[in-house]
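Encode chain A's predicted structure.
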Amino acid sequence: MEKIKVYVEYKLGPSRYSNKPVDWMLAVVPIYKDGVHVDDVELYAEAENPTWNEEEGYFEDERATFEALKAEIFDQAEEKGIDLSRYELIYE
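Encoded structure for chain A:
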C-alpha cells in the first residue's frame, strides 16, 4: 500500500494560547476507511525556543525544538489511534 503524504509545518509564530512567539509544528492527517477519506485529524504542538540571543537578536539554534515537537506529534497520534508509519511525513 502506498503511503499517504502528510505535510508537517515547523515554524516560528504566535502561540495559539498566548501572545508569546513560539516554534510550532502542525500536521493535518487524513483518515481513510475502506479507501474513502472520512476525516482529518489535526496534530499540533508548540514550545518556546530557549536559544534566543537577546543581545544579537536571533536564535542560536533555529531547530532547537524540532525533536521535542516531533515527539509530541507522534504521542498525540498514538493517543488518537493513528499509526503514523502508514504515512509519509514531509517536514517543511
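The two ends are 24 Å apart (CA to CA).
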